[in-house]
């Protein structure tokens, strides 16, 4: 069986010859590819899904309050200071609100733009790397140059981890954009080693190093010390390995660079500490930085192998090629790398980037899937470089790597088979969601799970045929096309269903609250915390953790002389018996999904006998 799956070589050569003769067309085609994959991954349907509880609305509402109050120093949520993250994400969202209005699109556009920026810079870096490789070999291989850059960008954009965090309004993708772009700028400054910038007899680092420092400052303003610790560790380890630490010290002028970083990042920290003192220091530096690394915070503990699973699923379906991509670099052969030109160190640098972040957060005690998001660009570069070895070139492909590639390809087949089986049986594997009891039934009825499983099953069959016919060059393309089909036919519709089942009821109740809320009437939420209601009502909500505390609070309110005549409560139906509420003690204003909006007249509540035992 011999299946023709590739475009004739002469057609490819003719096309790229045209691009070589028309550089503007090459830029246009490259930009078009980046816009297409960027829109598919991060722009398509971005604002058509409501904010997702519980983290996203915390950022979105804090940014809205920043815009409304004009306080650009101290973030607030629901009337309380929010010191979880520094100010950059809030500034970006608030600026987006000012330009495009307060909505889901504006809350998420900073994440989408950050993702697209690091992807575009990675495309340029990979393309430049192969340009230099061609110059050293005295050949011109435009297909390899542009196709590998396009593949790196595609793999970087179209994977679950990047898509999830690039489509929600939190700080993780902004951090990845800053750290990833900073590391790419460092490599370009290291590899290109352009002439330093001289201003009034002051010798500055080259433009790429300066950009690296600015981006590190942005990372610090996005998540704090980790913004300089992570890229700093990676750059130092890499410089020591290639034996160029002192050369880079002289080129980068790190003391001056540190000054640039501090000038850009410290003013906000100084102002927020000046305003809030030890409250900020203890909450941000103590709890959200030191304790997250040394202790389990908010119950986010996991076994040591947690990030192996996160990367396997988060970079699916290409993650099965990460081991062979790392082996391809042969980072243990230091003598080999010491002989190489700086411009040819991209694979080695991506290896340090990937392993540095993976190792750092594996050591950290608190573990979350988003923590390893900054290594995804490195993973994409590594796998794209592996794929480039299969493209026509003057260099031969290593037999050892070829053997491991064949093994990885069959692992890929098994992995896609497991994904297909899991989707076919997802309703039996996953526990029901109490907040959306009909969610998985709706997904099953819609057919998205079946369609998703069929896409991966079809991809599995095609992939097996490709392997058996030795068309290894098509492997990554099949995975990429399969993922795009899965996203379009299954993932986006599934997210829409999830929004309708989990978040739409809360938005509907929020609209009813705005219509029916009486002057000075307090709104409380009992037994759970859904910050989306705060965002959509633009009202302060009293979140009460338990029915017992809610009863005590209601009883206390009945004794207040300057109180409202009633209060509004959002509650789940199962909580009614715990509150000892009889039908004549409240008015049910609306029931949406698992939630009820009720009004409790405080005069009636005062006469009610509470059982707080």
Automatic annotation (TrEMBL):
It holds the Pfam family PMT. InterPro entries: ArnT-like_N, LipidA_mod_glycosyltrf_83. The chain crosses the membrane at residues 24-44, 112-130, 146-166, 173-193, 213-243, 255-274, 304-324, 345-365, 371-392, 404-427, 447-468, 475-498. GO terms for molecular function: mannosyltransferase activity; pentosyltransferase activity. GO terms for biological process: lipopolysaccharide biosynthetic process; protein O-linked glycosylation; response to iron(III) ion. The keyword Zinc-finger does not apply. It is found in: Cell membrane. GO terms for cellular component: plasma membrane. Keywords: Cell membrane, Glycosyltransferase, Membrane, Transferase, Transmembrane, Transmembrane helix. Residues 55-274 form the ArnT-like N-terminal domain. The keyword Cell membrane applies. It is a multi-pass membrane protein. It comes from the Bacteria. This is Glycosyltransferase. The lineage of its organism: Bacteria, Bacillati, Cyanobacteriota, Cyanophyceae, Nostocales.
């Amino acid at each position: 069986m011999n299946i023709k799956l590739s475009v004739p070589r002469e057609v490819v050569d003719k096309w790229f010859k045209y691009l070589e003769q028309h550089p503007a067309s090459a830029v246009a085609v490259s930009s078009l590819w980046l816009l297409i994959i960027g829109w598919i991954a991060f722009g398509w349907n971005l604002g058509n899904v409501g904010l997702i509880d519980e983290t996203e609305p915390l950022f979105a509402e804090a940014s809205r309050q920043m815009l409304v109050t004009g306080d650009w120093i101290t973030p607030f949520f629901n009337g309380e200071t929010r010191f979880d993250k520094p100010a950059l994400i809030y500034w970006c969202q608030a600026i987006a609100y000012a330009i495009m209005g307060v909505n889901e699109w504006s809350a998420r556009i900073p994440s989408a733009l950050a993702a697209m920026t690091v992807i575009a810079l990675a495309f340029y870096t990979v393309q430049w790397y192969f340009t230099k490789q061609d110059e050293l070999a005295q050949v011109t291989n435009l297909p390899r140059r542009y196709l590998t850059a396009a593949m790196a960008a595609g793999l970087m954009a179209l994977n679950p981890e990047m898509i999830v965090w690039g489509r929600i309004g939190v700080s993780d993708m902004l951090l990845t954009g800053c750290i990833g772009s900073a590391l790419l700028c460092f490599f370009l400054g290291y590899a290109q080693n352009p002439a330093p910038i001289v201003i009034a007899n002051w010798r500055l680092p080259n433009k790429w190093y300066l950009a690296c420092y600015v981006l590190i400052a942005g990372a610090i303003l996005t998540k704090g010390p980790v913004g300089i610790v992570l890229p700093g560790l990676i750059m130092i380890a890499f410089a020591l390995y290639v034996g160029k630490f002192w050369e880079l010290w002289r080129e980068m002028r790190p003391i001056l660079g540190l000054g640039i970083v501090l000038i850009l990042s410290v003013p906000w920290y100084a102002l927020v500490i000046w305003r809030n003192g030890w409250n900020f220091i203890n909450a941000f530096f103590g709890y959200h930085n030191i304790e997250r690394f040394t202790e389990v915070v908010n119950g986010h503990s996991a076994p040591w192998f947690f990030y192996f699973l996160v990367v396997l699923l988060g970079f699916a379906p290409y993650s099965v090629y990460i081991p062979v991509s790392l082996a391809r670099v042969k980072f243990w052969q230091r003598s080999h790398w010491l002989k190489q030109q700086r411009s040819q160190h991209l694979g080695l640098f991506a290896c340090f980037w990937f392993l540095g972040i993976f190792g750092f957060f594996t050591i950290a005690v608190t573990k979350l899937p988003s923590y390893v998001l900054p290594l995804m660009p490195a993973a994409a570069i590594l796998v794209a470089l592996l794929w480039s070895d299969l493209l026509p070139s003057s260099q031969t492909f290593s037999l050892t790597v070829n053997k491991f590639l064949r093994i990885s390809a069959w692992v890929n087949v098994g992995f896609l088979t497991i994904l297909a089986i899991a989707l076919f049986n997802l309703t039996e594997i996953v526990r029901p969601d109490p907040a959306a009891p009909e969610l998985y039934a709706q997904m099953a009825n819609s057919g998205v799970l079946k369609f998703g499983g069929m896409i991966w099953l079809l991809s599995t069959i095609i992939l097996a045929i490709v392997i058996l016919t030795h068309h290894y060059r098509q492997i990554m393309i099949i995975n990429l096309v399969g993922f795009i089909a899965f996203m379009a036919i299954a993932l986006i519709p599934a997210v829409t269903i999830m929004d309708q089942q989990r978040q739409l009821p809360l938005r509907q109740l929020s609209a009813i609250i705005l219509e029916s809320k009486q002057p000075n009437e307090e709104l409380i939420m009992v037994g759970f915390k859904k910050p989306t209601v705060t965002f959509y009502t633009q009202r302060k909500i009293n979140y009460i953790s338990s029915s017992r505390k809610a009863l005590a609070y209601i009883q206390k309110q009945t004794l207040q002389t300057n109180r409202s005549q009633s209060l509004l409560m959002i509650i789940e139906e199962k909580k009614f018996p715990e509150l000892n509420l009889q039908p004549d003690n409240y008015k049910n204003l609306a029931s949406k999904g698992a939630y009820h909006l009720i009004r409790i007249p405080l005069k009636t509540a005062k006469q009610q006998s509470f059982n707080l035992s």
